[in-house]
Specification:
The chain is of the alpha/beta class. About 30% of the residues lie in helices and about 20% in strands. It has 13 helices and 23 strands. The strands form six sheets. The protein has a seven-stranded parallel sheet, sandwiched between helices. A four-stranded antiparallel sheet has the order 1-2-5-8, with no helix packed on it. Strands 13-12-14-15 form a four-stranded parallel sheet, sandwiched between helices. α11 links the parallel β22 and β23. The radius of gyration is 23 Å and the shape is globular. The two termini are about 45 Å apart.
Length: about 500
């Protein structure tokens, strides 16, 4: 959205001049009179922090405006000072919206050069970690892979940053696109620049055949594979293969790399009423710094673009990118319809408890993670980054599925905003950015950066500079909280039939 937001500490704030609601920064007791943007407003009921208070009378059926844009329609007349939420506000979105292309306005970039210490790979990509990833082709050998990771971490300590098994339940009894998606995601993870080596563990009778997966890999120099049914002792065979990889990685060192080698994934989860005011716009500023310097930023969670499509589509670098973005967005809507599900069944219960009422409101806040950079590419699920700049990646809103897709696409650092908190971590180092200081103070073992300071009047440019420096430090090897806690998950998007 690009809205400049520097706020003194107030009881409630109005984001944009056209807004008909403000957001409570603290719990507001009933009958308290507030000064909001020069207007005296009396709270007619208790309003929780993060929730909305009406600034003016809103007629039944009229638009409710936040972020300078409609976030739905009033389902009944709303008086100034009333709590505005799901009891009197509903989405105005309807299926079948059409979009028209307009050339993007040029944007002036101006960010000072920056470096981090990374691992340069043979394919010119750069890793922010030098790990060994053990990847099962099928869930049947997930525990086998975990035992290998545990024992190899002891035997080959120091040969890699860490050794992890990236387990999942799929790879068999899958058909068509589901099977292809599983194979593409696993192959992309095996080729990720943060993996200095990868061991692929197959069973032998699964649908996701080991050789078919290996055939999709562009370079197998640092890939090893075993088939458990064919090996006399699969654990011994796996340990031998891991020893080979450890020897190959013995001379890997960090060297100075330009910020153009960064590929950051942008994600939000457990959002609250502050996410669109603090953490998400802050990520947008950092994404702009990365893309200004020639790096890549990845935006996903397609259902959390519904209702805010035009804020992204008007930044399409050309008509082809515009049309491919529309295809992905409309295709996701058709996916909902094909499963007899309402397109706009969102926000989640946690979002609603945090003050987000409609999908328009959630999406207008979520899209701010992408900053102001032009949209330069659109990727299907399982595809990898092809170009610098901002790319749109097809994936659902689910935290684990979308973050895995971001990693598979090539993100070497993930920035994850949250207002409710989550301990989850993913194969790429995942920095958690709190939308409010209460969460950051209550969960310091989860949260890497407190964006709630913006609600206390902190300078956004200073906060963006500090978060960008944290990204560089993390890319250079500093462990994020999820890594410190041993949180490491992947999840694969399942869309089809299971045999």
């Amino acid at each position: 959205m690009g809205t400049e937001m520097t706020f003194p500490r107030l009881a409630a704030i109005r984001v944009a001049p056209a807004d008909t609601v403000a957001v409570a920064l603290t719990d507001l007791p009933a009958d308290e009179t507030l000064d909001i943007a020069g207007h005296a407003v009396r709270a007619r009921a208790f309003i929780p922090a993060g929730h909305k208070i009406a600034l003016a009378a809103i007629a039944a059926g009229a638009q409710v405006v936040k972020f300078g844009a409609p976030i739905g329609r009033a389902t009944q007349a709303i008086e100034p000072g009333e709590h505005v939420h799901s009891h009197n506000l509903a989405t105005a979105l309807k299926p079948g919206e059409k979009f028209s292309y307009t050339p993007a306005e040029p944007r002036q970039a101006g960010t000072a050069p920056a470096e981090f210490l990374g691992y340069r790979r043979a394919d010119k990509r750069v890793g922010t970690r030098n790990e060994i990833w053990i990847i099962p082709t099928v869930g049947c050998v997930a525990r086998t892979s975990e035992r290998l990771a545990r024992d190899a971490s002891r035997r080959f300590a120091g040969a890699a940053d860490r050794i992890h098994a990236l387990t999942h339940p799929f790879g068999c009894s899958q058909l068509g696109d589901d099977l292809n998606d599983t194979r593409r995601i696993l192959a992309a993870l095996a080729s990720h620049p943060n993996a200095g080596g990868a061991l692929i563990v197959g069973l032998g009778c699964e649908s996701n055949k080991l050789n078919a997966l290996l055939d999709t890999l562009p370079d197998r120099t640092r890939i090893r594979a075993i088939a458990a049914q064919d090996a006399g002792d699969e654990h011994a065979a796996g340990m031998d293969a891991l020893g080979d990889l450890a020897a190959l990685m013995a001379n890997d060192i960090r060297t100075p790399c330009p910020a153009s080698a960064l590929s950051i994934g942008l994600k939000c989860g457990g959002s609250d009423g502050f996410s669109g005011l603090s953490a998400n716009p802050l990520l947008g500023r950092v994404a702009d710094r990365v893309t200004d310097l020639g790096g890549a930023a990845l935006l996903t969670e397609i259902p959390e673009i519904f209702g805010a499509e035009n804020t992204l589509l008007r930044r399409a670098a050309n008509r082809d990118v515009f049309e491919r973005a529309v295809d992905v967005i409309d295709g996701f809507k058709r996916y909902f319809v094909a499963h007899n599900q309402p397109i706009y069944e969102n926000p989640s219960p946690g979002n609603i408890a945090g003050g987000i009422t409609t999908l328009e409101e959630k999406s207008l806040g979520a899209v701010q993670k992408s900053g102001l950079a032009p949209l330069t590419d659109v990727l299907s699920y399982g595809e990898r980054i092809r170009a610098a700049g901002l790319s749109l990646l097809e994936a659902p809103g689910n935290d684990a599925v979308s973050s895995t897709a971001l990693t598979a696409a090539g993100a070497n650092v993930i920035l994850f905003t949250t207002g409710r908190g989550t301990p989850l971590g993913f194969p790429a180092p995942t920095l958690k950015v709190a939308s409010n200081s209460e969460l950051a103070q209550r969960k310091p073992h989860w949260i890497d950066f407190d964006a709630g300071v913006l609600l206390d009047g902190a300078d956004p440019d200073d906060a963006a500079a500090r978060l960008f420096q944290l990204v560089l430090d993390t890319a250079s090897g500093q462990l994020c909280k999820a890594e410190q806690n041993g949180e490491r998950e992947i999840a694969i998007w399942k869309r089809g039939v299971t045999l």
